[in-house]
Amino acid sequence: MSLIILDRDGVINHDSDDFIKSPAEWEPIEGSLEAIARLNYAGYRVVVITNQSGIARGLLDVETLNRIHSKMRRMLAQVGGRIEAVLFCPHGPEDDCQCRKPHNGSFAELAHRLRVNLDNVPAVGDSMRDIQAAIVSKARPILVKTGKGERTLAEGIPDNVEVYDDLAAVANALLEPQL
User: Fold this and answer.
1) 10 Å Cβ neighbour count for 92?
2) Other CB atoms closer than 10 Å to residue 157's CB: what's the count?
3) Total-model pTM
């Protein structure tokens, strides 16, 4: 069974500069839930690693975040998909914790929990922080143009980073038969 790591905001759901603070504000990007379901069907374990500094900023609490993730899981189940785990960093940028991307603490925790090596595991994000955490973890960094992806691409990314329009395009690339 294969593993894929996804960022949440800007990859699975529409992002907001004002943060996603309630289940009502969480709306999937078109095709993202179906892409996850297709990955599951093909044998991928899907895990989300996400920075959620809105908690440190007092914009939402962990209970509300759990309700947001419950909505995400319910909507995903409706299209036949599943997320195995959601790891989140509740800290702000000034807290300098190791679980907040671009640090790789959450990636290391995932590897430890699942007893897997993350070498070349696809890690999909829309920001330089996501790319940096993947690179430090020896995962395979993939940038999507959704969310902050276009801006990240315009600012410049390392040469070895694959770029796709959205999560559906990533799923297509991973699942197309290798010739």
Assistant:
1) 17
2) 17
3) 0.96
Judging by beta carbons within 10 Å of its beta carbon (0-12, 13-18, 19+), is residue 170 exposed, middle or buried?
Answer: buried
Q: Identify whether the C-beta of residue 125 lies closer than 8 Å to the C-beta of residue 134.
A: yes
pLDDT one-digit tens code per residue, 26-41 = 999 999 999 999 999 9
Which one is catalytic: 7, 15, 126, 130? 7
The secondary structure of residue 98, as a DSSP letter, is S
Q: Give dist(CA 176, CA 79) in Å, integer.
A: 20
Cα–Cα distance measured from residue 138 to residue 148, given in angstroms and rounded to the nearest whole number: 23
Can you tell me the mean pLDDT for 93-120?
94
Local confidence band at 96 (pLDDT 50, 70, 90 cut-offs): confident
Secondary structure element (H or E) that encloses residue 71, with its range? helix 62-78
**Contact in structure between 155 and 129 (CB atoms under 8 Å):** no
Q: Is 96 a catalytic residue?
A: no
- d(CA 81, CA 92) in angstroms, rounded, equals 31
Round to whole Å and give the CA distance between 162 and 81: 24
For residues 151-176, average pLDDT: 96
9 is catalytic: yes
